[in-house]
Amino acid sequence: GFVTFRKGKTPRRPGPKKGSNVEKDPVGVYCRIRPLGTEDQECCVEMISNSTIQLHAPDGLKANRNGEFKEMQYSFKKVFGINTTQMELFEDIGRPLVEDLIHSKNGLLFTYGVTGSGKTYTMTGSPGEGGLLPRSLDLLFNSIGPFQAKRFVFKPDDKNGMEIQSQVDALLERQKRDSQQSVPRTPSSRLKADPEFADMISPEEACKCDNVDDDCCYSVFVSYIEIYNNYIYDLLEDAPFDPIRPKPPQSKLLREDQNHNMYVAGCMEVEVKSTEEAFEVFWKGQKKRRIANTQLNRESSRSHSVFTVKLAQAPLDADGDHILQDKNQVTVSQLCLVDLAGSERTSRTRAEGSRLREAGNINQSLMTLRTCIEVLRENQMYGTNKMVPYRDSKVTHLFKNYFDGEGKVRMIVCVNPKADDYEESSLVMRFAEMAQEVEVARPVDRPICALAAGRRHRNQAFRDELSRRLEERGNSNNAEDPGLLNQLIESLPPIPRCELVDPADDQTLPNLIEVLERRHHIRQMITEQFNQTGTCVKSQVDLNQQSKISEKDKVILNQRSEIDRLEKKSKTLEYKIDILQKTTDMYEQDKRSLQLELETREQRLQKELSERRRMEQRMQGMVTDTKLKWEKECERRVNAKQLEMQNKLWVKDEKLKQLKAIVTESNSSCSAERPQRPSRERDRDRNMGQKRSGDVFKTRGGGQAVQFTDIETLKQENPTAPRYSILRNEESFLSSDQSPFSMSFVNPGPRVWRTSGEEQNPH
Ligand code: ADP
Ligand code: MG
């Protein structure tokens, strides 16, 4: 099957959806500065670089406004100085548009500027200095020339679409036209019919586009309209113009086609086959425009003119012989060349009455163009969705689809550097600079036709070969074909007179029979020979077909091997992917098991750690325990030692007393009661008996003495620091201890001196 692309209905596709990823290009704005006229002296435009110009306020203006005028700079895609040739301009601006046209993309080119700034010069040119229009036509026809379809094969319908006619229908229509026209057209050869536009197209500058699809057939249609006072007029309409009683031409309406593209309803679209023919059509329209302007007292600078080049193309069939008879395969693209009205304000030309009103309309349409561009720019820059007032004027309405659909839009701002134009020029520049900020969807490449490339070429080669072989055969067999035939006829025995006048005539009939028999025989021979030649040619053709088939077979074989190769490649890649997948899986598994191991190890470590902490705690407990035990033991021992020492002391005291008593007895012969040895039991007994700690007795010397039955021992309780630390750390542990010494540890009061007696006291 075929890849269907743009329908033959319309040159433009419906607008791309907003917000989608459409590629966009800014409107390309170029500036062209024309040379200063001979009568003008002061120049107010200076080219600063090849993309920037500067406007200088003329001296008069500066003086008027106290020199407050700014030196404004404006930048464009490119600035063309006064020395730029038409050719250079075309190469930069025209060529890309024509190349796009050939590749089924739409283009729109404006010239914009004040009257006299060079718009028409740039678009149309002058003799010897052809402008963008003739050059575009020339490039187009030089490129598609040999691939053009026969006239009337493509036929515009009246709904902005394009139909295909069969070869036969096209031929019939051609014959019909030829019979109607007294002078047959001569589309080929560069003939300069009209001296008025001689040299507009110079053959020595002939150039060509590369990469034209030669498996397509092309046809060019041109239309030319004028928009004046917001009315559209067809400049190619055949209606005869009556110079004596001129009636105003009928204006045309804008319509929207199936795909929402605007077109001028009922507008003539003339099929042209060469640059000359196309330019001739243009020139005819130009003349008509001029006549109408004079007759109707119009000012030509106030009209917009639109010259449209429409290119229809359709692929050749698989044999490369005929156009594919499928309307859906027709692609139509168009290039609009627009020479806008002068952009100056009305006040400058002092127009009056209807002229003023017309001027208002002209201005209105340029104003609308300006507003549309402004709104578009605002919508695009700030994401707003304001309505663009395309419908407010015919010019903007007609080109609506270039801005909200797709296409390449180019504008050439023309500027006359003379001082008088300064103010208008600065307005023009401001608008043009702003227009650059508007973006238009880039036309997309059309899909490639599904048929194999090189069809036309192969078909041509086949035809050449066929005619060569036929010629060869002709040369060897029947070199002088008509002569041979005549000879043959002459060599036939003449038919004798066959009038039977005499019933007894037995000569005539047999004669006739014989002659006819001979003739019949010769005829048979000729037929035989003819049949032989026929089979011969047939076999030749078969051979050709065979060669064609084998060629195709070869192509198929090649493609099959290519497919095989690709399949193999894809298989190896699949295999590789498989292996990689497996490796990944393995690594993943490894990772998982390692992670698991890590986790168990961590757990074990944690367990060990907690075990160790527990052990440590236990050890600490034990240490404290032991320490406490030892401390108690020490204290016990110290106490025991103390008691022992006290006893010893007591014994010594007793001995001393006895000694004293002996000494005293020897003096007073008085004997004393023998004191007893102190003991805990005795102390208790004594306390039970309400005895005070000392007894008074009479000394031998007649005095009294107090005998202390209890030896007062002084004990200092001085808690030490280590005890505190133990207490602090293991209070609970210690408090539960049943040690007999615990009290003194638990309540380490202030430094107290106690008697041992008090200690024994229950209160
Ligand atoms: P517009 O169409 O803008 O009113 P025209 O194209 O008619 O202006 O130009 C006015 C005059 O200036 C014409 O005579 C034209 O030949 C001349 N002219 C304009 N531009 C150039 C240029 N770049 N080089 C030489 N002559 C020019
Ligand atoms: Mg002009």
From TrEMBL:
InterPro entries assigned to the protein according to its UniProt record, in alphabetical order: Kif23_Arf-bd (IPR032384), Kif23_Arf-bd_sf (IPR038105), Kinesin-like_fam (IPR027640), Kinesin_motor_CS (IPR019821), Kinesin_motor_dom (IPR001752), Kinesin_motor_dom_sf (IPR036961), P-loop_NTPase (IPR027417)
GO MF annotation list: ATP binding; ATP hydrolysis activity; microtubule binding; microtubule motor activity
Biased composition (Basic and acidic residues): 674-698
Subcellular location: Cytoplasm, Cytoskeleton
UniProt entry keywords in alphabetical sequence: ATP-binding, Coiled coil, Cytoplasm, Cytoskeleton, Microtubule, Motor protein, Nucleotide-binding
One Pfam family in the UniProt entry: Kinesin
Primary subcellular site in the record, as a coarse category: cytoplasm
Gene Ontology CC, one term: nucleus
SUPFAM superfamilies cross-referenced by the UniProt entry: P-loop containing nucleoside triphosphate hydrolases
Coiled coil: 549-618
Biased composition (Basic residues): 1-16
Residues the record lists as binding ATP: G113, V114, T115, G116, S117, G118, K119, T120
Region (Disordered): 1-24, 174-193, 665-701
Keyword ATP-binding: yes
Domain Kinesin motor as annotated: residue spans: 26-438
Listed Polar residues bias regions: 180-189
Entry's Gene Ontology BP terms: microtubule-based movement; mitotic spindle midzone assembly
Similarity comment: family membership: Belongs to the TRAFAC class myosin-kinesin ATPase superfamily. Kinesin family.
Name of the featured protein: Kinesin-like protein
Organism: Sphaeramia orbicularis
